[in-house]
Amino acid sequence: MKKANAFMQIGEVAQRTETSIDTIRFYEKSGLIPKPERTDSGYRKYTEETIRRVQFIKRSQELGFSLKEIADLLSLRVDPKTTCRDVKKRSEVKIYDIEKKIRTLQKIKRALSRVAATCKGKGPTSECPILEVLEGNEKK
Amino acid sequence: MKKANAFMQIGEVAQRTETSIDTIRFYEKSGLIPKPERTDSGYRKYTEETIRRVQFIKRSQELGFSLKEIADLLSLRVDPKTTCRDVKKRSEVKIYDIEKKIRTLQKIKRALSRVAATCKGKGPTSECPILEVLEGNEKK
DNA sequence: ATAAACCCTAGAGCTTACTCCAGACTCAAG
DNA sequence: CTTGAGTCTGGAGTAAGCTCTAGGGTTTAT
Questions:
Q1: Which of A 36-95 have CB under 7 A of nucleic chain C?
Q2: Which tens digit of pLDDT belongs to each residue from B18-49?
Q3: Is the torsion defined by CA of A129, A132, A138, A139 positive or negative?
């Protein structure tokens, strides 16, 4: 039978998420991860849930979301005062944003594929199609 | 016959790209856009090419690329000392990164779709599947 | 019982990517 | 020929997101 309270301390969270201890504490201050319980001596006690949160935060950042936007995404669950209708609307807006990001990434990818294909592997570069491909003007 | 030298000045570039004049000059200082020609009195003279560059920079930023990474992407064309083989290799690495970004965005999107679908529009929120969906551990 | 390896707080400092002056020149319109 | 909008340079200031330091307490192994 697995031990019920397998708490870990901040160092382990940092290691497993490949962040720093300072960053974890910074996320706590910023409200991105909830204030954890403490041991009698004041050490923070974390669970697996925290690992998942931190990983979510890091990945979302790599995708161009600010910490504020990430807080938004995460709040799509925590606040019991928001109605479902509300959450639904907000998710749909986010979904739209994300689809736009995906489309732009696909354009860049196609442009890069073209770069790679054009280069047969010999001689110097002169022109590349990256800029041309991105001219379609999606309104923000 | 179209006029050959339809130059614009910095204000127009700023307006059309929805950035500020200061930002354009900042990009120049940072090497993201080439130093433009000047009028006799010292005003910068730009072409359409600049518009495309600035737009490329802005979009790439929204996708989580730093200015340094963007400089990298753009340099996939300008430096005549790099061989095609080299450019090809670098493009392929970038393509891989971009594919990873797209996959993660798709995961977030699916999670959000689930949020939206689960909410039938009534009552308060309690749980959401955003965190669960992102557990697959792609190595950076 | 003491060293090594943890953890704590508060606050200063750093990097990135702008953003905003001050003080001066340029240019088009009236 | 003056006024107002636009531009110039150099440098200081700002916000986000960490990162580091000082000075101290805790835990574990020997």
A1: 38, 42-44
A2: 999 999 999 999 999 999 999 999 999 999 99
A3: positive
Give the separation between CA B97 and CA B109, rounded to whole angstroms: 18
Interface subset of B 51-90, CB within 8 angstroms of A = 52-53, 55-56, 59-65, 73-74, 76-77, 79-85, 87-88
User: Is there contact between A66 and strand D, defined as CB under 7 Å from any strand atom?
Assistant: yes
Domain boundaries, chain B: 1-64, 79-140
Contact: A76, B125; criterion CB under 8 Å: yes
Best of B128, B135, B138, B139 to disrupt the A interface (most A CBs within 10 Å) is: B128
Using DSSP's 3-state secondary structure scheme, residue A19 falls into coil
The class of domain B1-64 in CATH terms is: mainly alpha
- CB-based contacts of A54: which residues, under 8 Å, 6+ apart? A13, A17, A19, A24, A27, A33
What distance in Å separates the CA atoms of residue B59 and residue B65, rounded to the nearest whole number?
A: 9
**How open is the CA angle B68-A53-A9, to the nearest 5 degrees?**
105
Long-range contacts of B17-23 (CB under 8 A, 24+ apart): B17/B51, B17/B54, B17/B55, B17/B58, B18/A140, B18/B58, B19/B54, B19/B58
pLDDT tens readout for residues B42-67: 999 999 999 999 999 999 998 889 99
